[in-house]
Amino acid sequence: LLPRFSGSLLLVDLLCVGGLSILVIVPLLLSGREEIRFIDIGTLVWIQALINYSHFMASYRIIYRDRQMILRHKWASIGMPLILLGYGVIALWQAQLQRPLLVGVMVAVGSGYLAWHYTGQAWGMIASYTYLAGGRLVQSERILIRSTLRILLAWHLVWFATIWFGQTTLPEPFWLPPLYQLVSAATVLAAVLGGLGILKIWLRSGRFPPARAVVAWVAIFVWYAAMWRWGLPALFLVQLAHALQYLEFPARVELNRATRTAATRTAGHMALYGTGLLAASFLVIQVVPGPAMSVVATFLGAEPNKVAALLILGFINLHHYFTDGVAWKLSNPEVRKDLFAHLRGLPT
Asked: What end-to-end distance do the CA atoms of the chain give, in Å?
């Protein structure tokens, strides 16, 4: 989302949209290592947490920036938080009585939304960067590329189910292992369908799709390959890559809004914006102690204080999905105006 004609800034875009995660994860996959041990785990947790919570806070900044925005999207800004808060209180009470079912349901629902969120964001990257390059996707191309993402979404859901039963005392359904093998094999079909979509774009327009769109498409395959290879610990890397991919967009919106205000010094405003996101993230980390994903992995045997942390994490994640649902609809002219206001010659 940076100016299109600057090579160095284009490189930043490519790295943020997924290039950096490809450069890090692919060599690890090719190395054949069975575990992720290339960085001190404590350092990785802090980096991941700061970037991850920053992308949550950036989403909240968009939805809660003023009264008009809050009232325009009351379901996401008021209704859903109240429902999640009430559910969390009941779930915590049940967990104190050694009944963790509601906590488990929140984790399961959150994982389902996470699959939708990852694949939906990948589509947003592809659509946005194609739009920025002045291109359009015709219906057949959209169907092929989105079919890729729907298959990956199905894989994510089945992958989570295998993790779920692996961490509980419940017997694994007999049909789950063959289903997991089936959807894993279907990811090859997903790659073929997406490749056909890219080929159709090239044949129709005479131009290869923009590199940033292709990198975003490749990146999500790399992320899921890491999850397939290393299981739940890979989510540390994948969620970090996802958050980094996301952050350029709210930062661009913030910069465009600051630029429209003549009295605003954009450099100082953006420095304050970034500092505010990191400070808010640090405070949230203090409220949600411990490596979040390790809590998820052992939630059924968690102590009450860990259950509370897990519920807070679930609240933030689920609410984030709903705020994103109203913040990034490119079909909304207001969203396009905020996101693409810095560009000339493109409809907003």
From this structure: 14
Amino acid at 128: S
From the DSSP assignment, how many helices (H) and strands (E) are in the chain? 15, 0
**What is the C-alpha separation between 181 and 162, in angstroms, rounded?**
11
Using CA atoms of 316, 237, 16, 131 in order, give the dihedral in degrees to the nearest 10.
Answer: -70
User: Measured between alpha carbons, how far is 201 from 154 in angstroms, rounded to an integer?
Assistant: 25
d(CA 327, CA 346): 20
- Encoded amino acid at 243, one letter: A
Residue 10, pLDDT score: 77
Cα dist from 72 to 63, 65, 76, 77, 224, whole Å: 9, 12, 9, 9, 36
DSSP code string of 276-312: HHHHHHHHHHHHS-S-HHHHHHTGGG--HHHHHHHHH
Q: Render 192-244 in DSSP notation, one character per residue.
A: HHHHHHHHHHHHHHSSPPPHHHHHHHHHHHHHHHHHHHH-TTHHHHHHHHHHH
pTM value is 0.85
Is the pLDDT reported for residue 314 higher than 70? Answer: yes
CB atoms within 10 A of CB 218: 18
CA angle 237, 242, 246 (to 5 degrees): 150
Q: What is the pLDDT of residues 207-221, one digit of tens each?
A: 889 999 999 999 999
Q: What b-and-e string marks burial along 329-347, b requiring 16 or more CB atoms within 10 Å of the CB?
A: eeeeeebbebbbbebeeee
DSSP secondary structure string, 50-116? Answer: HHHHHHHHHHHHHHTSSHHHHHHTHIIIIIHHHHHHHHHHHHHHHHHTT-THHHHHHHHHHHHHHHH
Distances (CA, A) of 195 to 150, 185, 205, 345: 15, 16, 15, 29
* ∠ Cα 165 166 171 (to 5°): 50
Average pLDDT, the chain: 83
| The residue to which tokens 């052992």 are assigned | 298
| Listed residue (234, 250, 242, 330) closest to 17, CA to CA | 242
